[in-house]
Fold:
Amino acid sequence: MRYLPLDASEREAMLTRIGVPDIDALFADIPPEYRIEGLLDMPLAMSEMAVERAMTAMARRSVAAGSAPFFLGAGAYRRHIPASVDHLIQRSEFLTSYTPYQPEIAQGTLQVLFEFQTQVAALTGMEVANASMYDGSTACGEAMLMAHRLTRRGKAVLSGGVHPHYAEVAATLAHMADEKITRLPPDVVACEDIAAAIDDETSCVIVQSPDFFGNPRDLSTIAAAAHARGAQVIAVFTDPVALGAVRSPGEMDADIAVGEGQGLGNALNFGGPYLGLFATRMKNVRQMPGRLAGETVDAEGRRSFVLTLSTREQHIRRERATSNICTNSGLCALAFSIHLTLLGERGLRRLAEINHANAVQLADRLSSIRGVEVLNTHFFNEFTVRTPRPSVDLIEALARRGVIGGLPVSRLLPDAGLDDCVIVASTEVNTDDDRAAYAKALSECL
Amino acid sequence: MNKQGRPTRPEDVAAKARATFTGNRALDIEEALIFETGRFDATGVDLDDPAPFQSRLGPHAREGALNLPGLTEPEALRHYVRLSRDNYSIDAGIYPLGSCTMKHNPRLNERIARLPGFADVHPLQPVSTAQGALAVIDALAKALMTMTGMSAVAMPPKAGAHGELCGMMAIKAAIEARGERETRRVVLVPDSAHGTNPATAALIGFSVRPVPAGEDGNVSVEAVKSALAPDVAAIMLTNPNTCGLFERQIAGIAEALHGAGAYFYCDGANFNAIVGKTRPGDLGVDAMHINLHKTFSTPHGGGGPGAGPVALSSRLAPYAPVPFVAREGDELNLVEHAEGTASFGRMSAFHGQMGMFVRALSFILSHGADGLRQASEDAVLSANYVRACLNDVMSAPFGDRPCMHEALFDDRWLKDTGLTTLDFAKAMIDEGYHPMTVYFPLIVHGAMLIEPTESESKAGLDLFIMTLRYLAFAVKAGDRERLLSAPVFAPRRRLDETRAARQPVLRWTRPAPA
Structure:
């Protein structure tokens, strides 16, 4: 077996050195009646070529996003990722290292995390960010729990513009932890009155901008209402590139900003691994979940970086920790950070502008088709359209014509009465030909 | 002498390292932060001007500066390559972190994970266009069921601790279905457990009742029985446990729990020791997470991403989270909504760590039934070899008892030397090795937990063992300075961790003008 260096004679010599007659002696603690002879239902070892052949055959059974005009977003975005990003994250020293618990031989990872934290803080307009969470949805759930700790209250109010998966994750956590949650009904055109749902038990208001349906939202007035009642505002976003164009959570007075970072540096990967971004105000840092890299000096006085404030974390604080999280999304955070470094302020601004321009052009094209209505007044790179045909059916029909046309809202919100709505996204990868193909296929399907 | 007549013999060269003007030490380059070298107008990505358009951002446009520096591509390459060279990695040497299973990461798996049919598939594409992705989830789940002997596998959890949360939420849902949610609010956790276990239990409103381990490092049926009461929902027990030992009484513990109406959550962090040797399902486990990044070698990536699918017994399978894959004739479908099922709901967006699933499945296919069993045997053999070869110079808390895939030592052998486990670990760095896990498990004083995995050659193990023996001899010979000052040769000396925590600097800020 190509991955196992020991050979039979070496195994024999090692057993002799240990002083046992055979390998079974080392498994003597397993009661005999529970030992098995092997994994009888599984095939035997395969060569590299054979595995590649088998896995490639599976891969061919899916339609790759890049092979079709592709307009699906809703929390995961197809981006052009510079070639150097994937090259760099595959360097052994990044790919095959562990959590930097021995900082003297892990400054590479630690400095990257420090830079990542600074970038996320700048992007979100917040003061401090952690070294990443699993993904946007779990970061949102952790933010809710953090707000409960900060306010010593146990009720969250969720806007109807929050991504349904994120809302369901928060609802699951709340149900399990015996805490309350108020979910406002799906809010396609951002007209809900969130302030009216806030009371003196409310620990936090969770609002997404741009929201699930593509509407950018002004959180400032919501923040004023929440703060007046002693509640925190958690701002959610699902595409980091949006923050190159729309107002940041920090500017709008949010207390915690959480979001999905996949849209920079990371491929679609059918939903994971992604990375959660998590930022807040410095005064809240000791209630923040997740790892943090901090600056210090070494014994020779040189600037160095180290994991810090770990008394918040499970390996020290156990049941009194701020979270049970241990693993983060280190490599995804590295990809995010490299992509953002390559873009810089100028590149991010330009990238956001192109995303917006492509979405505007698409919206103009689609709304000129008879029966198609764009519901958003304002949007960044994603918007909701209403068509005369049930949307699940429509999207399948478009797929048969080779176009991935967006998300039928009813796939995630089956009971919302939005069966005729589709959420459509456009990023920099879409061309004018893609838009033309979409418009043509859509006219044919209606 | 070399060709230029300069001295090259050691005795002719000035022995003492001197300070350099730059702070660099040859290949070890001091690298500034991107915020110090980058410019706001520099970019490594060329983007075309968009065609003219009318903005639809309305009043929501971001006006102010973002303060994000950019680097051109050559500058960025150099920055990250230089930083990478300050890291230790499994590709460069043994990484014997107990509990972490740092084994070889096959590069085939990286290639396969990047196939467009896996990497470039959106989680919300019509399922008719994502059949290959669902097939991977289905095949991996089936393989994990075979290895664990359990009824179902919940695939969504994104890491080990997330898997714990998944298993404990399934247990809570099952207890709720029995109408005992209000009464069963206690989770038993041995004092040797990973910190994630009590943290997970507390996160969803359980209180934690500790169970002591015995002198032999095992939890006994009697200890569990005396902690059991009608208020107990479950136990969270690691097997093989954090001392590197198989829990000999595990089946009896399971029986006692089930008899008292409680569930058995098994922390599967150490599954690498027993794949193909025994099946947790047969032992009475109700839920167990499997760290794909440990047992099945998806790269650790400097601290993630991981993946933590949870195997469930038939008693808990109905409560598994959404989504899950269901076969409908020749097609695979996704069940994405909990309504109308017993599922406890959703615990993350989308469908789990697909990129890790692909790598893990590729690892499993490569090894096959024979290779997986051999890997577990080699991991256990290597750990016992390390244990046997160091037992005379270090001290093992459980004597000559064979271990599973981790060899545990304590610090009794350092007694009266004024040296600590940490000093020993830092001295290993100077010798070119990543240290073992230190000060864990908490129940062993000054613990040193060595997990060589199956990936090391015998020659590599022998060198590693010899190095630790030299260091142990240095301790015994009173060469304290070697350990106290270590590391000397690493990119950094020991760090001031107190300062980092007392005056936290968690982001770069522009220095005030002088």
Observations:
- The longest strand of chain A covers residues 202-208.
- Residues 65-81+345-445 of chain A form a domain with the Aspartate Aminotransferase, domain 1 fold (CATH 3.90.1150.10).
